[in-house]
Every structure is written in structure tokens, then in C-alpha cells.
Amino acid sequence: MTAAARTITLDMPEVLYERVQQAASSLQRRVEEVVLEVVATALPPLDGLPRDLADEVGSLAFLNDRALFKVARSVVPPDQSAEMSALLERKGRGEISAAEQSRLGELVHLHEALALRRAQAAVLLQRRGYDMSDPDVLNRLP
Predict the structure, then answer these.
(1) Which helix (H) or strand (E) holds 64?
(2) What is residue 63's predicted lDDT score, i.e. its pLDDT?
(3) Rounded distance between C-alpha atoms, residue 68 and residue 60, angstroms
(4) Dihedral, CA atoms, 89, 91, 96, 99, nearest 10 degrees?
(5) Of 131, 121, 127, 133, which Cα lies nearest the Cα of 69?
(6) How far apart are CA 135 and CA 41, in angstroms?
(7) Contacts by 129-134 with C-beta closer than 8 Å and gap 24+?
């Protein structure tokens, strides 16, 4: 079964159209297919994520490079990291209360959400031509 499709008319700057047309030609595909692939790549499927996180991750595609680098460099605040480590240690010893287990779940969710945002920012930067396989790129560029 094929998903329903919508037709749109898109005014594209000539210089951008030429880039898309060149890519389509080298891939031996139609321009429309290349545009669809670019849109699908920029807006990854976010099924199964909480709505707020899905919205945030989806909006990363619209950030400029400098903002994406800021997201890619973001880290867990030290106090949250220390709290999570302490709770994990208590859990490992079987000394964790229900309230602490709940807090640990919150902290794990925050860590996972940050990792997802950082990963998506890195993917988008890679697609924009940055070599994200080089760890020094995060320190050298905007």
C-alpha cells in the first residue's frame, strides 16, 4: 500500500535548482526524487519520541551551522551527571528508593535526549560538508 501523496509547487532560487539538478543528473534520478530525499533526510522520522523532543530534534534542520555546532558540543550539566552517577551506584548496591529510582529515570531520559540532539546535529553538520568523523572538528569550527 502506498502512502497518500500531496503535490506542491515550489519556487527555488536558480543557483539551488542547478545544484539539485546536478545531483539528480549524477545520481541518474529525477529532480523531484532528489528533492524528496533531501527533505526526508533533513526531517528524520521521529515516531516513538515524546512530542516535545520530536519537535526539538526536527527543528534542528533549520538551524545555521553555528547553532548546530553549539548543540553538537552541548554536555550534561556536571551536577546532573554527578547525581546520576550517585543514583546508579546506589541502585547497583540495591539501596535505591522509589523516589530515587524515579529521579534516576528522569536523569536517564535527559541524558538520552541530549545524546539524540547531539547526534542529529552531527548528522546534519556532516551532510553540510563537515567531517564529523574527526573529533577535533567540534573544537576548531564555529
Answers:
(1) none
(2) 94
(3) 7
(4) 100
(5) 121
(6) 23
(7) 130/65, 132/72
The reported pTM is 0.73
Grid cell in block for residue 40:
526526508
C-alpha cell at 82: 554527578
Taking the C-alpha atoms of residue 130 and residue 104, their distance in angstroms, rounded to an integer, is 35
Task: Return the number of other C-beta atoms located less than 10 Å from residue 82's C-beta.
Answer: 11
Which runs of consecutive H residues, i.e. helices, occur in the chain? 14-27, 31-42, 51-59, 65-73, 78-92, 98-127, 137-140
Decide if pLDDT at 2 tops 70.
no
In whole angstroms, how far apart are CA 51 and each of 48, 58, 64, 107?
Answer: 9, 10, 23, 18
* Average pLDDT value for residue range 119-130: 90
Helices within 1-64 (DSSP H only):
14-27, 31-42, 51-59
Tell me the Cα Rg of the chain: 20
Per residue in 55-71, pLDDT (tens digit) is 899 899 999 999 999 99
Mean pLDDT throughout 97-116? Answer: 95
pLDDT digits (tens, 9 = 90+) for 26-41: 989 999 998 988 887 7
The answer to whether 20 and 35 have CB atoms below 8 angstroms apart is: yes
